[in-house]
Amino acid sequence: MKIPNGALLFACAVVLLASSVVDLGGGGISLGQEEQVIKVVAKRFEYSPNTITVKIGVPVDLEFTSLDRLHGFNCPGLSIRTDIYPGKVNRLQFVPQKKGTFPFHCDNFCGSGHEGMTGTLLVTD
Ligand SMILES: [Cu+2]
Fold first, then answer.
1. For residue 53, is it within any domain?
2. Residue 66 lies in a domain
3. What is the C-alpha separation between 93 and 30, in angstroms, rounded?
4. pLDDT along the chain (125 residues), means of 10
């Protein structure tokens, strides 16, 4: 099939125009279910919040910050972990695939009291 150059250019222009109009809509368009963005603050020897509730099958974006030093977030039941460095946002993205109650804990030794730095991640319907 032969397409005249002019027609191709015109088609490209229409696509470009259409995409720029969509962008002006502001902030992008998300299809499907919304992401669950949850901010978690870590400090000696706690997480805030220390109970995190998410929905099964919906993408989760955990945004960790530390107020003092390096901590960790380790949730073995869901096979997820991240380091939590002070002064930056440490993201952990996952899609919960099973319902339940999953304990998490700090896995970077952060002093006397470190063993009590724990929380619970609840995956619900
Ligand atoms: Cu810690």
1. yes
2. yes
3. 16
4. 53 43 41 84 98 97 98 98 97 97 98 98 97
CA of 73 to the centre of ligand 1 (A): 8
Find the domain containing 89 and state its range.
36-124
Q: How far is the CA of 68 from the centre of ligand 1 (A)?
A: 9
Give distance in angstroms: CA of 99 to centre of ligand 1: 26
Tally of domains in the chain: 1
Q: Please indicate, yes or no, if residue 85 is contained in any of the structural domains.
A: yes
- Amino acid 59 reads P
Phi and psi at 94, nearest 5°, equal -160, 165
* Cβ contact 119:104 at 8 Å: yes
> Would residue 116 count as lying in a domain?
yes
Read off the pTM.
0.74
* Residue where the block lists tokens 């032969």: 2
What's the CATH number where 96 sits? 2.60.40.420
- Rounded distance from Cα 106 to ligand 1 centre (Å): 5
